[in-house]
Fold:
Amino acid sequence: MLDSKSESLKGKILVTAQPNPDIDRVACIIGYSELLQKQGIDAHPGIVGNIHREALFILENFNVNYSKVSEKSISGFDEFILVDSSSRTGLSENIDINKVVEIIDHRKSNEAHVFKNAKIQIEFVGAAATLIVEKFMESGTELSEGSRILLYGAIVSNTLNFKSNTTTGRDKKAAEWLKKRLNLPKDFVRRMFLAKSDFEGKNVRDILMQDCKSVDKDAKVRFSIFQLEVVDLERIIKDNKKEILGFLKEDKIKQNLDYIFLTGVDLEKGFNMFLAVDDKTKSLLEKALGIKFSGNAVRREGLLLRKEIIPIIERYF
Amino acid sequence: MLDSKSESLKGKILVTAQPNPDIDRVACIIGYSELLQKQGIDAHPGIVGNIHREALFILENFNVNYSKVSEKSISGFDEFILVDSSSRTGLSENIDINKVVEIIDHRKSNEAHVFKNAKIQIEFVGAAATLIVEKFMESGTELSEGSRILLYGAIVSNTLNFKSNTTTGRDKKAAEWLKKRLNLPKDFVRRMFLAKSDFEGKNVRDILMQDCKSVDKDAKVRFSIFQLEVVDLERIIKDNKKEILGFLKEDKIKQNLDYIFLTGVDLEKGFNMFLAVDDKTKSLLEKALGIKFSGNAVRREGLLLRKEIIPIIERYF
Structure:
């Protein structure tokens, strides 16, 4: 595959994604840039905006070299590669979509067709990082330690430590390959997950807004689901319950929604907690998920991700 | 990659493309079905409708086993894989686009986003067959002789025997890999090209209609370009000139076109011939391509494909 790259990629290339990247995007940006550079291509990692907490934890604690690019300097690049991204939405306006030459993603709903000149790879693995690791495995190129730990962290994070139903054998294989080449501290996964479970000194509203999905179902039913993926979920909910409920109540009115709730996922213990403020939403969740609210909260054993919850509840509208 | 397939592909799968497939599609359908079958997947080759002449030449002269599926039996399959295809246009109505699980293509303009559940691979090589051959090369699986010769023929045909500007190093590498494993007759390429150069007993109109591209430029300028890729172009043009000119004249009026012409490509000698019936088209081609018509015809040295001609002439409207 080496020839193919050098054949098609010319000029100064930015490997990038939507701004404010999470760990999967950061890992793909840094990892894929490294692979291309080692193939003699003038590729640059394009991290734009604020980096999510898990990625920051790795970058800062494991001495990974990284740099960010400004919105303004983006226009200095000749071509673009999008990783863990396949839509125009949210992309920097300085990226000319006709100059996007490659797309690597793992999400089902994509807008890949608008990128008329892009080579496209979309495969349904748990983490986009797995697709990048496979390219290293196939090419026989050695990865730097920083990229290894970032890509490993991305796979662990995206698959909820291999517990999510989106996990595939390929994710496990890629992570195994990396792990053999890493000397990880024993508590690595717990420490990374704790990094995104730290509510100290942060506004509850800001934290919730980081992971919200709003859906218009047939333009008739409108709902928003907030998700918290943390370690020590029970304590975090308890400490912040009042603020979360207040926020849900306020947002339901403000956005004129039919349903609104929070689903919390305990990354270590593998259970969910749901918070809801109105009887309509509570009744929907009780019917759809076979749970029983006590006041505004309920715990459910087993791990359910939001992307799995949405199709279940949609059948009950 | 073997695990990934067996993980995601379930049930009875049809590997298919738009009906009336050309040699690239036929080769991909038969070749990819074979690879999947060897991975234990219940995959079936889905050739629908009439097979183009080059593919028929190989199927009939080199004892390749093949079967066709009827429009009706398509609904008996659980999932679909599209090869050398990424659009809905022209697909059988019996293919539920939500059941398309994989797309392998090499064309820039695609509709891949409408296939919400499909893993997507779109890479700009000369022949889609190259992408299939690479999968065999990577997996270490042996190909049957029939698939080897079909895939080789597809790469030769799509790249005009490696002369077209769309040819990449990957096409050459894949073809080399196949050639080493084949005992081809010396005149194989010429015989295959002759198979599509045989006008004997055929209606000129039918032959021209097999390779026509009509374009609406900004909904203002409308033009149609017919293409003939043959061996012995000069003789074929001479023998059929009257019918071709009559057809162009008639079609220009019928379709209410601004421009219409035929571009002929000599597959062996590497030159073009253009036929046009009206002064407006002749003047456009003369300016854009630096040629000079003598009557209704002109010869131009060097090989120019229609996909290269279109952007050149569009600048002159």
The longest strand of chain A covers residues 221-230. Confidence is low (pLDDT under 50) at residues 1-6 of chain A.
